[in-house]
Amino acid sequence: MQLHSLRLFAAVAENASFSGAAKQMHTVQSNVTAHIKKLETELGVVLFERQGGIHLTPAGHAFIPHAQRILAAHDNACAAFQDAQAPSGVLRIGSIESTAAVRLPDLLANYHKAYPGIEPRLTTGTTNDIVSQLLDGIIDCAFVAGTVPHSSLYCVEAFQESLVLVADAPIKTMPDSDTLLERPFLAFKQGCHYRHRIERLLAREGIAAARIFEFGSIDGILGCVAAGMGYALLPKTVVDAHRSRFAIHYLELAEEIGDVATWFAATAAVGWSPALIAFEQMVRAPAN
C-alpha cells in the first residue's frame, strides 16, 4: 500500500471527483484512477460509488480515518526532523458559513503571515455536515455552532455569538404570533444550528410548526429579508458587517435564544500535524 495511493484516495474523497483530485495533486486523472483501483484491489473492497457522481461507499467511509492516520503519522515523522518553527503542508478547515464570513478572515490572514509555508483550505457547510466531514477524516479541524458537537472530539470555545432577529423594517419588540405565522423564516438547510434556534424561538412564542425557506448563502438570506420576504436569525456580527449593503434591521434576543458558542473542534489532541498545532494555538490566543 503506497502513501501516494492514500493521498490520492483522500483527495478524491475531499473533492468528490477524480478530476478534482488530479488537479489538486498535480497529476492526470488516469493516474488517480489507477491508484484507486490498485488500492481497492489490495483491500478487496470498493471505495467509491461511481454512479450519479463520486461518493464514498460504506467501506470507503470506514477506511478514510485509517488512511488519514497513516498519512498524519508519516507527515509528523517527517516534520519532527524539520524546523519546528516553520511548519508546512496543507491544513483542511471546515466552518459554518457565518463564521467563515466574519470571524475567520483575520484569523486566516494572521495564520498565513505567521506560517507562509502552510496552505489553508477552507470549506463551508452546516454544523452537521462539517462534523461528519471531521469524523470521516476529510478535514483536519472545524468551527461549528451550538453545544460540543461529539464526545470523541477535542473542542475549545473559539467565539461567542449573539443571534438577532433580522427584518426589513425597524423592529423594537418581538412580532406577535399571527405575524410570525404569516411570515416565513429564511435559513440554511437542516443541520444548521441557527435553524434549531428559530424553532426554539417559535416554540417559545407558542408556534409549533415553523415555515422555513432554505437558502445557500448569507447574501441570499439577507437580500430576501431586505426585500420583505421574511425574517432571519443570524449572528449580530454578521448582520452588522452587511448592513451597509442591505436595508435590514434587527432585534436583540434573550440570552437563552440569542447566545450561541462557536467551537473549534479536531479529532484528538494526539498525533496532530505541526500545521494543526500552530493553528489551534492561534485560535486559543487571547487576541482571538
How would you portray this structure in words?
By secondary structure, the chain is an alpha/beta fold. It is built from 13 helices and 11 strands. The protein has helices at residues 3-15, 18-24, 29-43, 58-79, 97-102, 104-114, 127-135, 177-182, 193-204, 218-226, 236-242, 255-258, 274-284, and strands spanning 48-49, 55-56, 89-95, 118-124, 141-145, 154-167, 185-187, 212-214, 232-235, 249-252, 259-266. Strands 3, 4, 5, 6, 9, 10 and 11 form a 7-stranded mixed beta sheet that branches. A two-stranded antiparallel sheet has the order 1-2. Strand 7 (185-187), helix 9 (193-204) and strand 8 (212-214) form a beta-alpha-beta unit. Helix 1 crosses helix 3 (29-43) and helix 1 crosses helix 4. The mean pLDDT is 88.
Q: What form results from the Cα inertia axes?
A: elongated
* CA distance, first residue to last residue: 42 Å
As a whole number of angstroms, the C-alpha radius of gyration is: 21 Å
Number of helices: 13
In terms of per-residue confidence, which ranges show pLDDT below 50 for 5 or more consecutive residues? none
- What's the count of strands? 11
| Share of helical residues | 40-55%
What's the oligomerization state?
Answer: single chain
Query: Helix and strand succession?
Result: HHHEEHEHHEHEEHEHEHEHEHEH
| Estimated share of beta-strand residues | 15-25%
Provide a compact summary of the structure.
The protein has 288 residues and is of the alpha/beta class.
